[in-house]
Fold:
Amino acid sequence: MMLRTLCRSGGALLRQTQRPVPRLWVTPAQQRWASSLPMNTVVLFVPQQEAWVVERMGRFHRILEPGLNFLIPLLDRIRYVQSLKEIVIDVPEQSAVSLDNVTLQIDGVLYLRILDPFKASYGVEDPEYAVTQLAQTTMRSELGKLTLDKVFRERESLNANIVHSINQASDEWGIRCLRYEIKDIHVPPRVKESMQMQVEAERKKRATVLESEGTREAAINVAEGRKQAQILASEGEKAEQINKAAGEAQAVLAKAEAKAEAIRMLSAALTEQNGNAAASLSVAEQYVSAFSKLAKESNTVLLPTNTGDITGMVTQAMTIYGTLSKTSPKVESVAPKVLEEQIEDPVNHSA
Structure:
């Protein structure tokens, strides 16, 4: 009977002493305050991904795990409720100065998780405020090491450095920073205008370079085409000259063979009966033909003294032929050739 009365009076006293207490890391909507902490109803059901910190007579006792738990009235009290889910915190916008003295306005998003509910409850007074301030100071420190151009190019490395710096300080708080992302970077209007002008100048530069490279490639292609055309033309001319020379050589050979055959036939004809008379007739015909062509190609003409004595000219040619025939039998085959030369050039011989 006394125990029942004591329990009722203790429950009433507990309800009277309840007051609004801040509840940390409650919902993704970032509602950080609850109406009250859970009451000690002896039998408690702890939700999944939550850790309830219990104090016994004002001293830390234990952390309630998800599921069914039992507490002693009056002696045990739920002091903190910690969420073990990943928590998202908006880092307020702040100003920072880069290495090249440009003032920037930067804000970000911080993702973290509570790994040790005991340290998160007793290691720091306000974990959210502590982590936010640490992220801001670390961001200003890291931005002071980079120029404006590198801030835009090295955002990933900047985020990684901020996460590393936060984790070094938050280990004692039982909090682990998972990642940090920069949302917006605002630059002064004048700096923005100069950056736009720089971008336009860079684009014009690239366009000029590409145009010059295209002109150079076109000139190289034209020169290569002309070179190949000249090479092909020279090769064609070379082949044409070779073919022409070969044709001329064959023509010379054919003429020589025909002339040799004519000489052999003339020699054979001279050895027959009345060959000398036929030779005399041929010499006379060549003599008349030669005189008919005088003064057609040049104004200078050389004439023998006895121009009208055709018989004497023929007799002289036949005398030379007879002398060569008697001199050496070996030269017999050459006599028709000498006779032909005498017939072709009667004027020079007479001179």
